[in-house]
Amino acid sequence: MLLAALLLAVAATPSRAEPAAPAGAACPGRADALGTARVLTVDPAETPRVGRKHFPTTLPLADMEVVLTFDDGPRPGRTDAVLDALRRECVRASFFVLGKHALAHPALTRRIAAEGHTVAHHTFGHPLLDRMTPAAAEREIDHGFAAVESVLHGRAGERPTTPFFRFPGFATTPALLDRLQQRGIVVFGADLWASDWNDMTPGQQLDLVMARLDSSRGGILLFHDPRLQTVQMLPAFLRALKSRGFRVVHVVPPRLRTASAPP
């Protein structure tokens, strides 16, 4: 199987953790690493909603370019393993974190930012917002913003530092979409799913995701970092991207502030 061959290749590489490299730079100690091909700035004023699974438009990606996104973390024992795999390949991703998990695991949340990944937002507790009143839904969104901002920056402002948001379960409403656009928040959908909310083996998930990528030739890809099958699959998946000629794009807001680069 594809997974078995790629796991052998991963096992043959050095196990030490190399420091994260700037996007587009060579990967220290790993000449064959996947790396991050380029950084794409996403301006809310120009791009309020992205992801063809949910909206008419998506990010301006070239053929064979992939944006890696992870939802529902951070979770100890899972998210840190995802970060280890990304660091080995010098790959940058976007993590749509839950506010309650950020508060419960602040060091892990700060590690995501410190290693150069984009820390985005996914509400505080993962309710389906289309089942709430607009006012209650917006309070839930703001609660998530405030929790993540307090962990990363010590306080919450009127607008999150990284104005990227994904609806839990993609349960949107026209009123909430309009409200977030007014506030300058980019709503992320996805172009393709890993479907890792369904139980499957890591090998089955790898085959599924690569088949979808081969068909779509890139796009915004959705994973869930708390899912064990995703954690176990990820090193082989990154090597598969490299071997098939895919390139990773890292998305950032016009002004990115992280725990490693305070204002």
TrEMBL record:
Signal peptide positions (record): 1-17
SUPFAM superfamilies: Glycoside hydrolase/deacetylase
Keywords assigned by UniProt, alphabetized: Hydrolase, Metal-binding, Signal
NodB homology domain residues: 64-249
PROSITE patterns documented for this protein: NODB
Described function: Is involved in generating a small heat-stable compound (Nod), an acylated oligomer of N-acetylglucosamine, that stimulates mitosis in various plant protoplasts.
Family: Belongs to the polysaccharide deacetylase family.
Protein name, per record: Chitooligosaccharide deacetylase
Species: Rhodoplanes tepidamans (Rhodoplanes cryptolactis)
